[in-house]
Design goal:
The protein is an alpha/beta fold. The chain has one domain: Divalent-metal-dependent TIM barrel enzymes (TIM Barrel, Alpha-Beta Barrel). The chain has 14 helices and 12 strands. α2 links the parallel β2 (about 30) and β3 (about 60-65). α4 (about 80-95) packs parallel to α9 (about 180-200). The longest helix is centred in the middle third of the chain and has 22 residues, at about 180-200. It is globular and about 50 Å long. The structure holds D-mannonic acid and manganese (II) ion (MN). D-mannonic acid binds next to β4.
Length: about 350
């Protein structure tokens, strides 16, 4: 595995490449052209400039998170083929720039959904949290307003103000779309992009839906082992793979994470590792420190499963807690993600050595 950290670019991130570089065990970053709208073309020059900036700081560009998929593609609206065409050209430019891993998601309207961005834990750290009761009590339009004040002045992926201003229209766009239609639209998209992925050896890594069930009545498909196996089978190409995000699949306690990892051998192209702590009931949880004992998951068993399947792709500590008075994008401060990376590298080193 290659330990990385997500970086939003010098314009948006509070964390610098220099800081990431000094996190000794992190050798690469996962980044994006954060200002691009879904459907917009990424030119080769823009990609090369992004790559140069990362490499000049002594780091590798290990992959992209995300090249976002437009709502037209997800809903099969008239602009779908135009947007797919531009997605293919973007992939071609990424391939020419020698970039071989692209994370994306197929979630309608919202990217991940949380009801609080700064829930206080007993030690005074703050974390992102989800409560089904809070979702049930609010309308989607109100949802954005209620969390907007907790973003610490940052723009959170999938929650851009311009996008949230159109939330009502977006819901209308998805009104006739159920799980089956979404699967069919995903298939259409994947079939169209596989030739360019084959040509440039680009691994597509779909990010799971978070949480792993329908929110506000929207369809959600990338939520379980059964559904991912279906997705991989419907376009059976090794470049059609997944981002294994423990914090997203793990929202459903029915998902056995180490077992899922083993079932996806060869098709996990990227891993997001974080821990969750469940409170009263299944659908109420908060994000915890990466350490197993701080949450619900057995992080050793997760790393062990990745080791056993021969996972050699990029991995990153996903969201961290906000600690030590850091002010940053919720989930994406430096301190706790660096602690998480150290812990995960420690687990990995011991697993490797025990197996030598
Ligand atoms: C990320 C997602 O912060 C997060 O939860 O894992 O936003 C992820 O980047 C996207 O869903 C991938 O397109
Ligand atoms: Mn994730």
């Amino acid at each position: 595995m290659q330990m990385t950290m997500r970086w939003y670019g010098s314009k948006h991130d509070t964390v610098t490449l220099k800081q990431i570089r000094q996190t000794a065990y992190v050798k690469g970053v996962i980044t994006t052209l954060y200002d691009k709208m879904p459907g917009e073309l990424w030119t080769l020059d823009e990609i090369l400039a992004m790559k140069r900036e990362v490499e000049d700081a002594g780091l590798a560009l290990a992959g992209i998170e995300s090249v976002n998929v437009s709502d037209a593609i997800k809903t099969a609206s008239p602009e779908r083929d135009r947007d797919i065409d531009s997605y293919i050209k973007t992939l071609e430019n990424l391939g020419k720039a020698d970039i071989h891993m692209v994370c994306y998601n197929f979630m309608p309207v919202f990217d991940w959904t949380r009801t609080e961005l700064a829930r206080m834990r007993p030690d005074g750290s703050t974390v992102l949290a989800y409560s089904q009761a809070a979702v049930d009590a609010i309308s989607p339009e109100k949802m954005f307003d209620s969390i907007a004040g907790e973003m610490n002045g940052t723009v959170m992926p999938g929650w851009e103000p311009e996008r949230m201003a159109k939330v009502k229209e977006l819901f209308e766009l998805y009104s006739g779309i159920d799980d089956e239609t979404l699967f069919a639209n995903l298939k259409y998209f994947l079939e169209a992009i596989m030739p360019v992925c084959d040509k440039y050896d680009i691994n597509m890594a779909i990010h799971p839906d978070d949480p792993a069930w329908s929110v506000f009545g929207l369809p959600r498909i990338i939520i379980s082992k059964e559904n991912i196996l279906r997705m991989m089978k419907m376009v059976d190409n090794p470049h059609n793979g997944v981002t294994f995000c423990t914090g997203s699949y793990g929202t459903s306690l029915r998902n056995n994470l180490p077992e899922m990892i083993r079932a996806l051998k060869g098709r996990i192209h990227f891993a997001h590792i974080r821990n969750l702590k469940f409170n009263d009931g299944e659908r109420d949880f908060e994000e915890a420190a990466h350490l197993s004992s701080d949450g619900t998951f057995d992080m050793h068993a997760i790393m062990r499963a990745l080791y056993d399947i021969g996972f050699d792709g990029p991995i990153r500590p996903d969201h961290g807690r906000m600690i030590w008075d850091e002010v940053a994008m919720p989930g994406y401060g430096l301190y706790d993600r660096a602690l998480g990376a150290a812990y995960l590298c420690g687990l990995w080193e011991s697993i490797v050595k025990e197996n030598q």
